[in-house]
Amino acid sequence: MRMRKVLIGVVSAAAAVVVVIVGAVGVDFGASIYAEYRLSRAVRDAAVLGSDPFVAILGFPFIPQAMRDHYDELEIKANTVDHAMVGKATLEATMHSIGLTNSSWLIRPNAKLPVGKLESRIIIDSVHLGRYMGITDLMVEAPPEETNDATGGTTESGISGSRGLVFTGTPKSAHFDKRVSVSVDLSIAGADKTTLVFTPTRILTGPDTANQKVPDDKRAAVLSAFSKRLPDQKLPFGVAPTSQGARGSDVIIEGITEGVTITLEGFKQS
């Protein structure tokens, strides 16, 4: 009988501990959800977005981060934002080591945030890029060697290198009505480093391409259809581009910088 009472006592104590832990985790999770909601609304108001962006404050537990006025990492992502030239684009920012001393754990629209490392991106899907280029069935893929080797040639965020991307589509402006695959290099130009340049280099045939040969008298026109300049691509928070490439069927311009202070209104550049 005594042993049974002891066991019941141990089980009850363990259950109480579990209840306390679950409750603490629930409180922590609820606080983080509320902080993310408030930050999402703050970004929407400050950057004049049409809808609330996705926001994630990363790292567990959350409450100790808030108490020491420092978030380890947070992400902001806004889809289908009205954007220069292509019509719609996705804006994305990843921040590391965010100071809240001059702000609050509930970040307000006018807050000034010191950031240890900032990654900033414009993501343009192949549908909107294709419309801009006049190739309505455009598909974009990473360079073949990177598609076959996930560990090579990409940035930490999974963006491919800028040379040898595979663009596939029907170049009707070249009066060519069959889908072709073209190797395209990406680069950044302009005094303000906001023009994305597409430079086609050769027709591609073989596996994992449209495998469509182009007659010699059509080759120059077909390549020219994949040549384009896309100006006014300003990254969130005005970060200068450091790389360009593909992820999935999206073209991405990325900039990475360190030791900056930002305001939320800078998420969407005019």
Architecture overview:
It contains 5 helices and 11 strands. By secondary structure, it is an alpha+beta fold. The strands form 2 sheets. It has a 6-stranded antiparallel beta sheet with strand order 1-2-3-4-11-10. Strands 5-6-7-8-9 form a 5-stranded antiparallel beta sheet. The N and C termini lie far apart (77 Å). The model is unreliable at 5-24 and 148-153 (pLDDT under 50). This is DUF2993 domain-containing protein. It comes from Mycobacterium noviomagense. It holds the Pfam family LmeA.
The global form is elongated
Q: How do the SSEs run, as a string of H and E?
A: HEHEEEHEHEEEHEEE
Number-wise, the strands total: 11
Query: Sheet with the most strands?
Result: 6 strands, antiparallel
The secondary-structure class comes to alpha+beta
Q: Could you give the distance between the termini? A: 77 Å
Organism: Mycobacterium noviomagense
Pfam families: LmeA
InterPro entries: DUF2993
Protein name: DUF2993 domain-containing protein
